[in-house]
Amino acid sequence: MQLVPKTAGRALRCTVGVAAAAALGLATAAPALASPTDPGGPTEHTDMGVTGADAMEHLQQLSDISLAHADDGYRAMDTAGYEAASEYVEGVLEGTGAFDVSRHTFEVADQTFGDVAFSVGEADYDVEPFAYSEAADPALSDAVLALPTDDSYGDGAGGELGCDATDFADVTDTIVLIQRGECAFGEKTANATEAGAAGVVIYNTEDGPINGTLGERMEGSAPTLGLQQADGEALRDALVEASEADPAEEVTADFTLETEFTTVETWNVIAETTAGDDDSVQMIGAHLDGVTEGPGVNDNASGVSGVLAAAEALAAQPTDVDHTVRFGFWGAEEVGLVGSTEYVNSLSSEELDRIQGYLNFDMIGSENYVVGTLDSDGSDVPLPPDVNVPEGSAELEAIFTDFFDEIGQPHVGTEFSGRSDYQAFIDNGVPASGLFSGADAIKTAEEVELFGGTEGVQQDRNYHTIDDTIENVSTESIDIFTPAIAFAAHSVAFELVDEPTEEPTDDPTGEPTDDPTEDPTGEPTDEPTTEPTDDPTDQPTDQPTDDPALMIAPDTVGVSDFVDADKGVDLSVTGLEPGDDVDFTVTPTSGQNTEEAVIEASADEDGVASTKVYGTSPDAADNYIGDYSVEVDGVDAADANAGAEQAAAEASAAADLSGTFSVVADEDAPGGGDDGDEGGNGGDDGDEGDRLPRTGADTLPLFAAGAALLVGGAAVVAATRSRRRS
């Protein structure tokens, strides 16, 4: 396996959203960075500020649901736990207001097991039934235990694997012991059945349970049990030794497998964005069901949690998605990828053609993890000969590999085998990729060098066991995978637009209004007087009566009020000409995790330009605590028609239109968090005054970045680029 070299230095990716509303109090749902030069959408793809902590919140909830239903099969198909988990997922998605959420129901053949046992002589063995196995009816007693035909047992080759009907000779009415490997379990059972075997025992080739499935029910086939590696190899050696000592000596065994097949109705949870191009659908999925053996926190509540975190962030973006994004939370995956297969099979050819790609996330928190991308181009792991790889799959994988390369995160390719819910999509020509942190594969020395962990053991030793709990999930792995899922979601949802330009247009709509006229309106006086007239009626009447002044109210605000969209901090400049444009620049100055925000505002008929600042992420409120500077640009330093003294005064005021405000812990706020501390701040204005009316964007979306600022200003915003469906 080719391994990607480890690179140093992880770049922290974050974005800050800025939005605008009309100065006269008109709240508008607006795109980020809305301004006369705003491109109206994202100019680069981003992980939307999503972190592993966001996924862990959902993972804890799903873990609690599974454990609460431990006596009823945890979160397996047709259990109360699966119903509760579905309701949780639906509630999260519906709560965003950005998705149409529904259930896609289907029927599936279910199977319950009764007594299961296997013994040889006086020794009882720990065995497990294979999914879709037929019953042993009646139970087998004193049946001869046989091996497939092979010249050299134990070499893992030829007849020992049972991958061809000719691998069995004279096994009629016997129980055949077969080694795992090379071909599917169902093929081994079918070949043994064709040769006349009464029962099949398949033993593992690595430590742990085999967790096997025959893939589908084969009525009339030999009942099949799974045996652990050490027991299987010991039995194999005993049979070889007995045959060598006396070919006529027979070893017998007892075999019990009780099972019942039923039909149950279950469902997938489907959520689709209310915005986006209906003819261009991007799908993202993770299976929601688990196994009856354990709570299934890594397999696959982890993948579900990462997808939920990405879906919430996508819903909070300031512009509508360009492509319709459809999320599938699959049921009945653990009984043979049934949910995703039923869903794809339910689509018409026209509906299927609209799906541009599918991204799958099955296990992202393995305790002995690898950072694996589904290797759809075969560059790391050779593609299995029977797997279809639709065109476009390699480009989807590149979303992940490029992301990891950019942040210096090593990664490896994992087999593009169709072992998870992308199988039905690629079988129907839909490009696919995804991420995988490992299951029952053994971790190599090369992988340990890249990712740490333990060499020579499974990548997830808790896979399909009672120990698949939240305590055994790797939070380090969750922290790596979750932003990558979010980045991929953003990448398939949005088309990028060009960066805005601040250059003037080639064809301006008008000439500047302050250019001198060709003919002066009057001749200068011959002898200007040195004293002002008693009645200064000749002075310009449109000059402001006061110098421009910056007002900040309040200058100290509790963090709870700062993240309240109805409160926040009001900024205004008075003493302007109506229609004057100014820029407010708000900059964190004490190390908090925010970026500088700039917004344009225009003065109203009273010569006041105003805006508002507040935090958009109440869940990360503490990140806002600190000091902020406010600078105002755009006020003329002095009027060309003003006298020398007035010009000097205006220049002084314009040069000092700056101030500060502070966001403090609630207990440190004036009035214990009350925002009633009015008063101005900054420059030479010194005015206290009443707090100005708010002209913010109360209905604007909140951004998912952990410490973003939302600035409501005066620029009239552009309409969103993508269509929103009713």
UniProtKB/TrEMBL annotation:
Keyword DNA-binding: no
Residue numbers spanned by region Disordered: 499-552, 602-622, 663-697
Biased composition range(s): Acidic residues: 499-537, 665-688
Biased composition (Low complexity): 538-548
PROSITE patterns: GRAM_POS_ANCHORING (PS50847)
MF-aspect GO terms: metalloexopeptidase activity
Signal peptide start-end: 1-34
InterPro entries linked to this entry: LPXTG_anchor, M28_fam, PA_dom_sf, PA_domain, Peptidase_M28, PT
Residue ranges of every copy of the Gram-positive cocci surface proteins LPxTG domain listed in the record: 692-726
Family annotation (SUPFAM superfamilies): PA domain, Zn-dependent exopeptidases
Annotated transmembrane regions: 700-720
Classification via Pfam families: PA (PF02225), Peptidase_M28 (PF04389), PT (PF04886)
Single biological process term from Gene Ontology: proteolysis
Keywords: Cell wall, Membrane, Peptidoglycan-anchor, Repeat, Secreted, Signal, Transmembrane, Transmembrane helix
NCBIfam families: LPXTG_anchor
Name under which the protein is recorded: LPXTG-motif cell wall anchor domain-containing protein
Organism: Brevibacterium jeotgali
